[in-house]
Amino acid sequence: GVLVECDASIKAIIVKIDSERNDIIVEDLDDEHLVIKETKLEELRQRLNQTLKTTLREAESSDSE
Asked: What is each CA distance from 22 to 6, 18, 59, 65, in whole angstroms?
């Protein structure tokens, strides 16, 4: 596995992504650390980026109203 260090908000998004198929996270260590499957690292990176882009777009559109 690969150790991932991130802030709690990003970790929450990763946990949500993993909850769909439970095939990414090997171990949830604490509020800022996860061990994930090395073979899923690139997929996770892409899905996380997509989720963040979508979230930012939604936040920007709600700010402009």
From this structure: 19, 5, 28, 37
Domain boundaries defined on the chain: 2-63
Sign of CA dihedral 54, 57, 63, 65: negative
| Cα–Cα distance for residue pair 46/39, rounded to 1 Å | 13
* Phi-psi sector, 43: left (phi>0), alpha (psi -120 to 50), beta: alpha
Question: d(Cα 51, Cα 54) in Å, to the nearest integer?
Answer: 5
Among 3, 50, 5, 47, which residue's Cα sits nearest to residue 27?
3
pTM of the model: 0.86
2-63: CATH number: 3.30.70.1220
Q: What is the pLDDT of residues 41-65, one digit of tens each?
A: 999 999 999 999 998 888 888 876 6
